[in-house]
Amino acid sequence: MIPITEIVDIIHISMTILLLFTGIFLSCLIKFPQLRNFKRFISIISSKQATESTKNTITPLQALLTAMSTSLGSGNIVSPPLAIAIGGPGALFWIFTYAFFAAVTKFAEVTFSIKYRKRAADRSIIGGPTTYLEHVHPFLAYWYGATALVLFAGWSSLQAKTLAETYGRLGVSEYITGAVTAVFVFYMLIGGAKRVGQFSEKLVPVMCATYLGVSLIILLQDIPLLGEMFMLIINNAFTPTAATGGFLGATALMGMRQGVFKAAYVTEAGLGTAAFPHSLADTEHATDQGILGMYSVAIDTLFCLISGFIVLVTGVWTSGVTSNTIIFDAFNIGLPTVGPAILIFTLTLFVLGTAIGNSFNGSKSFGFFTNNKYLKVYYAFVACMLMFGAIADTTTLWYMMEIILPCAALPNLIGIIYLSILHRKELRA
What is the CATH number of the domain that holds 79? Predict the structure, then answer.
């Protein structure tokens, strides 16, 4: 019998190639929109229409921030350090490389989620990958929809586990953390798109500004060290990373795998998941919302790189620790006493935002099968998964996600490539 680790390795290598190929292919096909649409992006977010919506929609800006609240989660904080701890400093190079090309993948995902969205009997919107994949082949839509239900629940479980482990360092029971998180997320979800959108609109700027500010204080304490850090990243992007301290060493392929996979997990580019909240935006032009989604990848990547930089400059990546709390140790070294307290505050906001956003996105996938009926049943299921995640084994949760994530990405990437070729002129506009 093939060990599960070998199965995960095969899946990872295959999906690493496919994810990168899709981003590079679409960038060439659509003539690199990530380089030529920045002025249009500024024009969109500064327009009056960006803050207007109707009864069954949310504003384009709320849609963007709701999507960002899912991608800007604990993954931005704990995933890059884990990628470095396993694959070496070169993993950060591949996080950046994937994000650059895969931004176009997200552009296509969001654009098609607007183009192919539909309305339920109560006039509420049903959108996301399930609706645009239905136009490629119904099998792909049902494949993605069923897998996404598990994906979002698993994502929420990981968020709860990260929070439970962090508060566990303060002596708080995992059961208490899980129960409080589950109740709060359930309350937010039953308020619908408006409540989630308004929460995200207030949450994202606060958590971003706080985390960014404290991180820069840590990084700027020793500026010459930053130069050495960048050289470390570049030198290990294509060559093996030697063993040092508790770090056992890693191949260049391992760094690439960790970087690409963690970047896909964090930015959601290639997974299609960000298309769910974006599909609810009140916008006349599908590509406008696609541009908002595309440039949100830059913000996701910025936070990933900063988290990775902190782990490198503090040296904790060589400790041999490969848990969600490695960033906690880095903040404790870089800014003793105050650092861990601020990290816990921002991490709480990140986790809550991601858990709410992911669960809301999962409800949209659930609504595809039920015509937006019985959504509270799914909300209750998510609350149970949050509780389960808080007390479950971390390794088990990660193995589950590392298998489910490619299962969701595969039908989405097939559909995106097909639709992009079909509508390449529209996407180039």
Answer: 1.20.1740.10
